[in-house]
Specification:
By secondary structure, this protein is an all-alpha fold. The protein is about 80% helix and about 0% strand.
Length: about 60
């Protein structure tokens, strides 16, 4: 779970700028990090940002 906390900490400013709260960010990160799709860390970060943009309506 340490990787999830690190990801949340790094992406939180980006999410806040989009108007997405921390709880929604944590949920998105958890879903992406634990899904069954094989992804590198970089690919996970891209997927998290893509989902954040969708959550923000952008």
């Amino acid at each position: 779970m340490g990787e999830i906390e690190i990801a949340v900490g790094r992406i939180l400013p980006f999410a806040a700028g989009l108007g997405v709260d921390e709880l929604a960010l944590r949920l998105i990160v958890l879903v992406v990090w634990t899904d069954s799709v094989e992804r590198t860390v970089e690919e996970k970060a891209v997927e998290i940002r893509r989902r954040l943009m969708r959550a923000a309506g952008a």
